[in-house]
Design goal:
single chain; 161 residues; mainly alpha; elongated; IQUB
Length: 161
């Protein structure tokens, strides 16, 4: 009798685990179906552009290489609102994220989102205050402060090295 009870209880446990797995799979499918999927390709491209530029400049900073595609997505869309800070162009394939102060290493708090043409001009500017308006500079510096706060983990790792 006890052996029969063990078999019955084992089969009910086994059956309930199958049910749990089926419920889990259905929940996973529903979650994935309802979550907005992001195409990270443009952000990977932007990140690769930053990394190539930092290699070209022989930068010793590892920040650009620690950043992930999700970080670049956040930087572009939440810090810079997905548009050039100068022209407000929103075409991701025309935008580049470049150093704000070209003499300092690239970081989320020393960058700005510009079109490719604007970036070329920006890199040639000697004194930014002579070219950019005071409200624009304040807007950029505010974005830098926001990036410092939101990318604290990068700053902590940077200062440990």
């Amino acid at each position: 009798m006890s052996q029969l009870f063990e078999i019955a209880s084992y089969s009910s446990i086994h059956y309930s685990r199958k049910d749990e797995k089926a419920v889990y799979l259905r929940c996973t499918w529903l979650r994935e179906r309802n979550i907005r999927h992001v195409n990270y390709d443009p952000y990977v491209f932007l990140l690769d552009c930053v990394r190539r530029e930092e290699i070209k400049r022989r930068s010793l900073s590892a920040i650009a290489f620690m950043m992930q595609k999700q970080d670049m997505y956040h930087l572009v869309n939440n810090i810079w609102h997905g548009q050039s800070v100068v022209s407000e162009n929103r075409d991701l394939f025309l935008l580049r994220i470049v150093r704000y102060d070209v003499n300092e290493e690239w970081s989320p708090w020393n960058c700005m989102l510009l079109t490719e043409e604007e970036a070329d001009v920006h890199c040639k500017i000697k004194n930014l205050a002579d070219v950019y308006s005071k409200p624009l500079v304040e807007k950029i510096l505010l974005s830098h402060q926001l990036a410092k706060n939101q990318f604290k983990y990068v700053r902590i790792i940077q200062f440990r090295e």
